[in-house]
Amino acid sequence: MTAIVAPMDLETRILIVDDDPGIRSLMSSFLDKHGFRTETAADPIEMRDKLQRQAYDLIVLDVMMPREDGLTALRQLQRGDGPPVIMLSAVGTDVDRIVGLEMGAEDYLAKPCNPRELLARIRTVLRRHRPDPSATPATAPKPPAESTEGVMRFAGWRIDLPAHALHDPHDQPVILSGGEFRLLRAFVEHPRRVLTRDQLQDYAWSQDSEQYDRAIDVQISRLRRKLGQGGGSDLIRTVRNEGYMFVPAVTR
Questions:
Q1: Which residues pair with 108 in a beta bridge?
Q2: Of the candidates 129, 160, 183, which is a domain's last residue?
């Protein structure tokens, strides 16, 4: 049967990091058949070496590896503006999932996983981070640099939705993960009203994304910490037994 290749898959580079050569070969072969361009690394050291020489759109990163585990490697990746990461682990408890998500992973799969499920998760994460080329022509003109369309302000902060950029009241950039940015966008588009976890799931994630209440709480906790570093620790209020509210007024 011929593999179905989505337009977004073409020219998409994926780096698979796993100490098991059989798993690397299986994943790489399967993803290659579905139109991705894959490379592999046997450990985080080789991963970092390849990242210095090549840009990747996504990393599939195993947790349990000798010498350096995947969570340690993930922590180092999050210090820069690295690509989104999907974690794989033979230990698939909720605690492990939460730790991975809290450290910045976009998704977490227990091993062994069905290659088709991994493919679906990869496409979901990629859709979050960039538009589908089939929906937006590559030759479409860009808006002028001075345009304020899609720019929203709150309590001295500025969020540029098309550019996925956030600046604090001192005009310093604040780096957010994909999940954190989607949550903040949901809040600024629905200010001063209580949003339940189910509503945040609908606003911030696609229907085929496997999110759960604790994961959303973790993302909000991380978002609060980053806002707090810029003096915005009280922007998101917890409403007991109901959900969360974005407190400040928002202007366009």
A1: 87
A2: 129
